[in-house]
Specification:
By secondary structure, the protein is of the alpha+beta class. It has a single domain, classed as Deoxyribonuclease I, Chain A (4-Layer Sandwich), CATH 3.60.10. The protein is 21% helix and 39% strand. The strands form three sheets. Strands 1, 2, 3, 4, 5, 6, 15 and 16 form an eight-stranded mixed β-sheet that branches. Helix 4 links the parallel strand 11 and strand 12. The longest helix is centred in the first third of the chain and has 15 residues. The radius of gyration is 20 Å and the shape is globular.
Length: 321
């Protein structure tokens, strides 16, 4: 192999945190839902994504990853009847913040997951759309040859307000052309329910990860690999994925989770569930957790997210296809 067949690429994965916890909505008492919706939206406002995003963009600007996988890249909307709709689009807000720092990222792929629309206690309508997204920098160098955006066939079923609902999750992927060489990046956010999670990981292994292409899998897998290997993580490793952190990471590499209001005095990260995994011809050279230190917090004391991000550099050993 010639030296010109090796390229260094940088990746990042980060769960942005939608800004509020939703389990309280999953109640059988439909009359209580408007009050719960109002409380959830108030929590979202208090965790202040427009302020947090500046801290997130600062970390991204320090690393300048070529490709980023984001989870909980949501869109909130408050519809005030006969007046206006207020929108918080996490993706667009982040891209605009990065542009202020001289970094031009574009959406390479995104999948749309759970979408809910519920009334609050004040006569308004609250809408929430969950998404996973891949951002790319320097499209002149990295040519997105193809993409896939889809939802899992197996999702968690719950009951809310006497109705059966699905918590829809999914994945997106891009095939990237670099100097005549192609690699694939997959981004996902697996369910917290271990049985569902295992099935979703299996769909990835049988789908986009079933390839001989050089492969990167990033995301919030909700499978702890800090002190022991939980089943989903274990099956991905047995499938042939390698964990960047296992090879060259320092310390525990924990990434989850800060308190839901993001103002806990000391970091409460205690599990490693956010990963950059690789397969088929990569060589990792650097990896670190980002957004986990006190100096990474906002001026108002908020942690950037309830998750820390993971940033890594890998050598891409090109094979022309």
């Amino acid at each position: 192999m010639n030296l010109q067949d090796e390229f260094q690429l940088s990746f990042m994965t980060w769960n942005l945190y939608m800004g509020a916890e939703l389990p309280s909505l999953f109640t059988e008492i439909s009359d209580s839902i408007p009050n719960i919706v109002s409380n959830v939206y108030r929590q979202f406002l208090a965790t202040n994504y427009p302020v947090r995003v500046k801290a997130i963009a600062r970390e991204i600007a320090l690393k300048k990853p070529d490709l980023i996988g984001l989870q909980e890249a949501v869109k909130w909307q408050l519809t005030i009847p006969n007046y206006r709709t207020v929108t918080y689009d996490f993706i667009n807000i982040l891209i605009n913040e990065l542009r202020k720092k001289g970094l031009n990222y574009e959406i390479a792929a995104q999948n749309q997951n759970t979408s809910v629309e519920l009334p609050d206690a004040n006569g308004n309508l609250i809408q929430l759309l969950d998404r996973d997204v891949i951002l790319v920098r320097n499209v002149n160098r990295l040519n997105i040859r193809s993409k896939e955006e889809t939802n899992f066939k197996v999702n968690l079923a719950i009951r809310a307000a006497r109705q059966k609902l699905e918590i829809i999750r999914g994945w997106c992927s891009v095939d990237v052309l670099l100097n005549g060489n192609v690699f694939r990046l997959i981004n996902t956010h697996l369910d917290t329910n271990s049985d569902i999670q295992i099935q979703q990981a299996k769909e990835i292994m049988e789908g986009p990860a079933n390839t001989i292409l050089p492969l990167i899998l990033v995301g919030d897998l909700n499978s702890n690999a800090n002190r022991y290997e939980t089943p989903t993580y274990k099956q991905l490793i047995e499938f042939g994925f390698h964990d960047v952190w296992k090879g060259i990471g320092k310390d525990s590499g924990v990434t989850c989770c800060q308190g839901p209001d993001l103002i806990n005095a000391e970091s409460s990260l205690n599990s490693r569930i956010d990963f950059i995994l690789f397969k088929n011809g990569w060589k990792p050279t650097a990896v670190e957790v980002v957004g986990e230190k006190h100096q990474d917090r906002t001026a108002t004391g908020l942690w950037p997210s309830d998750h820390a991000g993971v940033s890594a550099k890998l050598l891409f050993r090109g094979n022309k296809y």
